[in-house]
Every structure is written in C-alpha cells, then in structure tokens.
Amino acid sequence: MSTTLRVFIVDDETLARERLKELLNDCAAELPLSLAGEAANGRDALESLTVTPADVVLVDIRMPQMDGIELARHLAHLSPPPAVIFTTAYDSYAIQAFDLHVVDYLLKPIRRTRLLEALQRVRPNQLTDAQLRQLQREPRQHLSIHERGKIVLVPLDEVLYLRAEQKYVTVRTSAQEYLSEESLTALEQEFAARFVRIHRNCLVAKAAIVAFERASDDAGSESHWVVSLTGLAERLAISRRQHSVVRELI
C-alpha cells in the first residue's frame, strides 16, 4: 500500500459522490490521501480500477445493474485487491456485516470523523468470497474472468453452459468461450435457479434449452439423451444419473 492512501468512490448518486469528495478533502489534513477516481456504477468502477489501482474503494451497496456486494466480489480478483468500505443508508446491512466482523461500513449520512476513522484502519483486503456471499442477498449478475491481465465481466444472461474441464470451468456464450477458476459446485449452488446439472461436469442455462433428443454415435451404440441450446450447434450429452432431471424439465 502506498504512503498516500489512494481512494476510489463508487456511488450511483452524483450528490453522494460530491459529498464524499468534500469529506475526503477535509480528512486530507490528518491523513495523506488522494482521489484515485470515481464511478457511478460497478462496471465502470471495475474497468477503471483495472487500469488505475486504488488502496481503498468506498462502495455504495444499493446500485442498479450491479450492487456493491457483487462489485466487491469482482474487486477481490484484482492483484492486489483494494480494501473495501461499504456505504449504505440501510442499518440491516451494517448489522449483518458487523456480526461477521469482516468489513467496515459507513452509514449515511456519513460524518467526517467516522470516515477518517475507517480510512485510518484500512488494511489490505482480506475478505473471502465466502464472506461476501454471506452479505449478498441476490446472486451475481456477472462472472468475472481473468483475460490478458484484465478482468472481463460476462453477464449471466448470456451464459449457455458451464463445463468443468481439468482445473478450469469453461463459460460458454453464443459468441465465445471463457475460462473461470471458480468451482462448478460453487457456481451450481449460487445459480441453482438459473442452471441445471445435466452431467457431473456440466450445467446448462434453463432459459437456453431448446429441446431434448435421443442420439447415438456412429458406431450405433445405445442411444442417449442430448440437449440443444439456443444459438449453439453443439449438443450436450445428459448422463444417466440426470435422466430424472430431464423428465422434470420436459
């Protein structure tokens, strides 16, 4: 962490960002700090922080498109990850976070003394994904993928299937494939409402299913079930163990 604390602000409300900048300016008299940047949403914040790092990110929890908890989960993939301080007007979030003893919160309206106190005890981010998942009330809307030194956000709405292959999970959209280091089991637990397991190593998006068919290989072996997905020529095999799932979906 640099001698001067680099602070990044994420809040969808312009007035809230301006208020935080004023408070940071007031805090600068007692704590060396600088404004690393600001963003009105999580996607823009992640894109900026990939290029211009910060030591700490002040993140509003309630934001459209991507809430603050999901943003924090994506920020944890940065190297090194910034510390995160959440800002919120909702006490229920704060109570839950303090019970976990894992994160600092600033309740709105934010006071200078409270902001200074939070910044003075900032340390490198040690939040685990499991801890952040406990705070998150809704599943993520994006998967974060490491690609050529950057983090790419893949909307879950575009994902057709997730398939475990060796130590990675292939994330397939109609346009391309990505490689994720998340486990298939954890993804299945988080997105149970969105995906269904058709094989021990594969989950498919329920909304993308076009049809189930019986197929056999060229050798004329016993036929098996396959599933066709929207926008994908490839047909995916369904294991015998998952036949009951197929029947339920039909």
Automatic annotation (TrEMBL):
GO MF, any single term: DNA binding
Q: Which domain of life is it from?
A: Bacteria
Q: Report the residues modified as 4-aspartylphosphate.
A: 60
Residue stretches making up the Response regulatory domain: 6-123
Q: Which SMART domains match?
A: LytTR, REC
- Alphabetically ordered keywords of this record: Phosphoprotein
Pfam families associated with the record:
LytTR (PF04397), Response_reg (PF00072)
| Domain HTH LytTR-type: start-end pairs | 143-250
InterPro entries annotated for this entry? CheY-like_superfamily, LytR-like, LytTR_DNA-bd_dom, Sig_transdc_resp-reg_receiver
Mind telling me which residue stretches traverse the membrane in this protein?
Answer: none
Query: By its UniProt entry, which Gene3D superfamilies does this protein fall under?
Result: 3.40.50.2300, LytTr DNA-binding domain
The reply to whether Flavoprotein figures as a keyword in the UniProt entry is no
What is the protein name given in its UniProt record? Sensory transduction protein LytR
